[in-house]
Structure formats: structure tokens, C-alpha cells
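Regression test case RT-17, inverse folding.

Input:
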């Protein structure tokens, strides 16, 4: 039997209530009921608090984020795919295509920044603090590359490929959360100032503006007070789709694992990857049908609720003090992230793209399908599906590219 948790709250139902109450309090405060709170939330994004307050609960021992089942299987395996379905259901694919090839260019630059950043950070830390890159650090970095290019499934795949020590893997998981969360906070901060930044840079935002206007017009023309039937249909589509995704994902992953030798390189033997792919594909397919009309009853808003709950559940697994064991790993992660940002910034500046392209080009890699739509929605709610699409692209390439990163780092380490 696993050891009993020492956390004050160990009942998942009580924890569910705590997380729900926390999210409700955050969004109530963010609505600006007092002048003081209005000033606070101009500086501190509500979405950031949805992550860090549960992290504080975990760090102080109020809860044990790793002992609860709220994240897995509830949030990760149920709410995430349900949110993907509801967010992609309202997608304006022709409008996204009109955004042009520059969006894909910037996204690929973000991926390249992660790949290049790994050896840069490894070599830099070899000079600054050689002990940091000794032992199996290279293997842990390969796992982190899987997360920053794809997602959690790719990170776990790299752990299995390189047989990463459990302690090393856990430390890099903390680096992943800490560094990625800090960068996400910066992007959320910039999102609120994107119009001023784009105006000062003189970039062309007409394609983005046209898409936002088209979505707003669609919502205005079709908006209605949702009926009980509307809500039941939304729930049916979301959770019916989740059930279908899981029903297909397990045999698909099993078939690829047993019949395709290279399946693990692309995470095609992971049921979770197939759940994400099928859910996103289902929502995208429904966006071409009359089912898209259910968006006027608030489908994407319900999807956003699920997404925020997922973010809170991710946050409650974070231990803010765990980096004290190997604090130099944080600097390694910062150098790596800095390289990613630099490469992305250079390409975005040369291409003269709006700030949104830069942000989603980064978060589509670093945050994947879980948080890319959150950052996209911070620019405008209608842009969330763009984040979903780019966030899921990394799942197809994350394991393969992370494997290449592992080979490079293994060579540098002389392992």
C-alpha cells in the first residue's frame, strides 16, 4: 500500500470544493468589485492565480497534489478532452487559414528554439556549474524537451526511452512547471498590452482584427440565453466525445504499439495522445456542421471553465520548494528558455508579426494543448482555437524531436 498522505486535506471531494471555491473567488475578485481589486488585477492576471494559489496549497502541505485523483484521471483524461472538443467546436478554420503562413513560421521557430536551446544550456552550464550537467542530466533534459515541444505524454515517453532516474525526472518536472509557468505569466502580462505594443511596432494586425470581428459578429447574431436543452446538448457533445475518444484511443494505441516499430517515436503508442488527437479532430469536424451553432449557447465558455479547472489541478502538483535540492537546474532551464525566446523573437521581428503570433508560437510549444488556448484567449476569446490547434501539433513531433535532442545531449555528455 502507498504511504498515507500527511496533507491536511486528503479527501478528494473536499479538495474539489476547495479548488472550485478558489477559482470562483479569483474570478469574482478579477471582475473588479472594488477599486483596489481592479488595480491588483491590472498587474496580476487572474489566470496566473488559478495556477499559483493551488501551488501554494501544495507547497504548504494543505493538500497533496500528487495523491489526489482530481488531476488524473478527472482533469487530464476527462476535462481536458472535453474542453478541446468545446473550444474547437466553434473554430473558424477559414479565418485561421487567412492568418497566413507567418503563424506557422513563428510556431516552427519556437520549436527550433527549444531544440537549439538544449545544447546551448548544456554547454553553458558545463562552464558555469559543471556538476549540474553531470550524470544523467542529459537524459532528464531530453524528457524536458519532450514536454516543451509536445506535452506530458512526450515527456513520459522520453523517460522510458532513456530510462531516466525517477528522482532526476521529478526534478526536471519541477523545472518544467516553474520555468514554463514564469514564462506563461510574462505572456499573460503582455497579452493585456498587445494592442499598444503592436501599435508602437507598426505591425499589420488586419488579419487578426478581421477574424475577431467575424467571430464577434457571429456571436452577436446567434447569441441567446441557453435553455436546459442547450446545456444538455453541450454536455452530451463534450462528454460523449470524450467517451468516444477514449473508446478509440486504447485499441489504436495498442495496435500501433504491436504493429508499428516506430510508433513510440511519435507517441502513437500512447492512449493519451490519441485521446487528445481524436478529441481535437472531433471538435474540428463538428465545426463544419450545424453543431457549431451551439457555440451561441456558450459552448466555449463551458470549455473554458473546464480548462481553468485543469490549470488549477496542474498547479496543485507543484512544490515551490522542490528546486532547493538542485537549484542550478533552474538556471539551466532559464538559459534554455531564454534561447527559445531569443530565436522566436528574432524570427517574429524579421517577419513583422503581431505579438499574438509570438506568444502563441511559444506557448503552442511550451504549454501545448493545456495552456496554449489559455494564452490565446488572453488576447481574445475567439483566438483560443488557434492555441488548441498549435498546441496539439507538438504531440505529433514532440517525441521524435526530443529523441534527437537526447542524442545530441548524450554525445555532448560523452555517455
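Golden output:
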Amino acid at each position: 500500500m502507498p504511504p498515507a498522505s500527511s496533507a491536511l486535506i486528503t479527501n478528494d471531494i473536499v479538495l474539489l470544493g476547495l479548488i472550485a471555491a478558489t477559482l470562483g473567488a479569483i474570478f469574482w475578485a478579477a471582475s473588479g468589485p472594488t477599486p483596489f481589486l481592479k488595480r491588483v488585477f491590472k498587474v496580476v492576471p487572474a489566470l496566473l492565480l488559478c495556477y499559483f494559489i493551488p501551488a501554494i496549497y501544495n507547497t504548504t502541505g494543505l493538500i497533496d497534489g500528487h495523491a489526489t485523483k482530481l488531476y488524473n484521471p478527472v482533469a487530464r483524461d476527462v476535462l481536458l478532452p472535453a474542453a478541446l472538443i468545446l473550444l474547437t467546436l466553434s473554430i473558424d478554420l477559414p479565418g485561421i487559414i487567412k492568418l497566413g503562413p507567418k503563424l506557422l513560421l513563428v510556431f516552427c521557430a519556437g520549436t527550433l528554439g527549444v531544440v537549439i536551446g538544449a545544447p546551448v544550456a548544456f554547454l553553458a552550464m558545463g562552464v558555469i556549474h559543471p556538476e549540474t550537467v553531470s550524470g544523467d542530466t542529459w537524459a532528464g533534459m531530453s524528457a524536458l524537451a519532450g514536454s516543451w515541444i509536445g506535452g506530458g505524454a512526450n515527456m513520459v515517453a522520453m523517460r522510458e526511452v532513456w530510462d531516466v532516474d525517477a528522482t532526476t525526472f521529478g526534478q526536471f518536472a519541477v523545472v518544467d512547471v516553474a520555468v514554463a509557468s514564469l514564462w506563461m505569466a510574462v505572456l499573460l502580462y503582455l497579452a493585456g498590452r498587445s494592442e499598444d505594443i503592436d501599435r508602437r511596432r507598426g505591425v499589420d494586425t488586419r488579419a487578426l482584427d478581421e477574424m475577431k470581428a467575424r467571430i464577434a459578429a457571429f456571436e452577436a447574431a446567434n447569441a441567446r440565453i441557453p435553455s436546459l436543452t442547450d446545456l444538455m446538448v453541450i454536455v452530451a457533445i463534450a462528454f460523449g466525445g470524450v467517451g468516444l475518444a477514449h473508446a478509440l484511443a486504447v485499441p489504436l494505441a495498442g495496435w500501433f504499439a504491436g504493429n508499428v516499430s516506430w510508433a513510440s517515436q511519435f507517441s502513437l503508442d500512447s492512449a493519451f495522445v490519441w485521446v487528445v488527437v481524436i478529441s481535437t479532430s472531433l471538435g474540428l469536424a463538428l465545426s463544419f456542421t450545424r453543431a457549431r451553432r451551439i457555440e451561441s449557447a456558450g459552448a466555449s465558455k463551458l470549455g473554458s471553465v473546464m480548462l481553468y479547472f485543469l490549470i488549477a489541478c496542474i498547479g496543485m502538483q507543484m512544490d515551490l520548494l522542490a528546486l532547493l535540492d538542485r537549484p542550478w537546474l533552474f538556471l539551466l532551464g532559464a538559459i534554455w528558455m531564454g534561447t527559445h525566446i531569443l530565436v522566436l523573437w528574432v524570427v517574429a521581428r524579421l517577419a513583422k508579426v503581431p505579438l499574438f503570433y509570438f506568444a502563441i508560437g511559444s506557448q503552442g510549444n511550451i504549454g501545448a494543448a493545456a495552456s496554449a488556448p489559455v494564452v490565446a484567449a488572453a488576447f481574445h476569446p475567439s483566438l483560443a482555437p488557434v492555441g488548441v490547434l498549435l498546441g496539439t501539433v507538438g504531440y505529433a513531433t514532440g517525441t521524435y524531436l526530443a529523441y534527437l535532442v537526447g542524442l545530441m545531449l548524450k554525445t555532448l555528455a560523452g555517455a
